[in-house]
Amino acid sequence: MMTPIARTTLPCGETLPVLGQGTWMMGEDQGSRSAEVSALRTGIDLGMTLIDTAEMYAAGGAETVVAEAIAGRRDDLFLVSKVLPSNASRTATMRACEASLRRLGTDRIDLYLLHWRGNIPLAETVEAFEALKAAGKIRHWGVSNFDADDMDELAGVPAGSAVQTNQVLYNLATRGIEFDLLPQARAAGLPIMAYSPVAQGDLAADRRLSALAERHGATAAQVALAFVLSRPGVIAIPKATQQRHVRANRAAADLVLSAADLAELDRLFPPPRRKMALQMI
Ligand SMILES: NC(=O)c1ccc[n+]([C@@H]2O[C@H](COP(=O)([O-])OP(=O)(O)OC[C@H]3O[C@@H](n4cnc5c(N)ncnc54)[C@H](OP(=O)(O)O)[C@@H]3O)[C@@H](O)[C@H]2O)c1
After folding, report:
1. What is the dihedral angle through the alpha carbons of 112, 126, 94, 110, rounded to the nearest 10 degrees?
2. 23: CA distance to ligand 1 center in Å?
């Protein structure tokens, strides 16, 4: 029997699984829709009950795929969606959230993120998030693609300390956040949500991972995922449409890397030695 997926704690005290499911590129093509819906359903059945989406993905299409996948089981899930920076003003955030709720077929989003920083003052977006919370449309809010200095700025905004996560690019091939952003988040008790944890599939084909993966009877993608999951306070949200990928990703949560494995990974994919600007896709 599989062990349950480990959980991490948000600053608000709520816990959520450290392995979820991404949805970027879903909803783009009608021909892939049923595979996408059934992939998400399989993932949910396997305990990957955190689903990440955004109004941007397929211009709302990914949210409609999620709606179909979660029909009848909304209460078992933790739904994350994101507002575009161009919609992050007080009134546009409200409208964008309502539109996401309609597409998702739900009355609440569990965690609503600012997708990346734009020109709207942070204080205004946070005010809108807090108003959405008060109205019960969202339960929590967070940010995405925020570097360490952005997080400092957010902390100085009224209600900025209510942030629940920062979703950023993090995988074996892109380890810059280990220098400053990750320790900063840990010190604040803030989980980091790692997007593109298998580097959009690139790490699945990375030969540097083959020997280690073989020793574990695992694939390179699973080792890449296990690496991200080995970091305390990090949540990974791989996207997979193929059933075998969904199942492999779930199994990666049970893959334990030894200190020797981690040292080998450090040699193959060196951690940062100095500040690196946050990368984003
Ligand atoms: N906040 C942001 O700015 C931001 C940016 C990027 C992504 N995200 C979120 O993070 C999620 C994940 O990132 P991502 O989609 O960019 O990249 P990813 O999850 O690193 O990679 C997805 C790709 O890897 C393949 N894959 C997944 N599991 C695999 C496995 N076990 N073995 C081999 N290949 C595997 C998938 O194939 P199949 O689909 O064919 O199965 C897909 O092509 C997104 O879907 C989105 O929800 C957020």
Report:
1. 20
2. 8
Read off the pLDDT of residues 222-260 as tens digits, 9 standing for 90 and up.
999 999 999 999 999 999 999 999 999 999 999 999 999
How would DSSP label each residue in 212-248? HHHHTT--HHHHHHHHHHTSTTEEE-----SHHHHHH
Nearest residue (by CA) to ligand 1, atom 37, is 240
What is the per-residue pLDDT across 24-53, written as a single tens digit (0 to 9) for each?
A: 999 999 999 999 999 999 999 999 999 999
Q: Tell me, what CATH number does 137's domain have? A: 3.20.20.100
Whether 154 is covered by a domain: the verdict is: yes
Ligand 1 pocket mutation pick from 56, 145, 195 by most atoms within 8 angstroms of CB: 195
Minimum CA distance residue for ligand 1 atom 29:
245
Does the beta carbon of 20 lie inside 6 Å of ligand 1? no
CA-nearest of 193, 4, 24, 195 to 110 is 193
Position 11 in a domain: no
pLDDT of 3 reads: 84
Considering its fold, how many domains does the chain have in total? Answer: 1
What is the span of the domain harbouring residue 67? 16-268
Cβ-contact 227, 172 below 8 angstroms? yes
Give the SS3 label for residue 183.
helix
